[in-house]
Amino acid sequence: ALLTASHIVRWADDPKQRLNPRNGLCLAKTQDAAFDRHLFTLDEQLRVVLSKSIREHFTSETIRVNFQPFEGRPIQLPNRFSPDPALLGRHRDTFSRVA
Length: 99
Hints:
With about 100 residues, the chain is of the alpha+beta class. Helix content is about 30%, strand content about 15%. It has helices at about 30-35, 50-55, 60-65, 85-99; strands spanning about 5, 25-30, 40, 50. The longest helix has 14 residues, at about 85-99.
């Protein structure tokens, strides 16, 4: 109940990717909201990279519990439909501009 299908490239940004199963990640709702707002991304090795703005809030218990433990760690890949590296690259590009 706490997991959601998160889009790597948002629906509004690229309608052609809406139904692409490789444009998705299974994330907890808190992480989904942060990923959608580019507060974190995944590097080329699928490790979690936190933005400067989220780092500044590590004193917050929510940030410390929900994000800090995962920084630098790779995500667990699904059995099918691994995330598309090109779409993750697009997410990283936006992340680097807004982070």
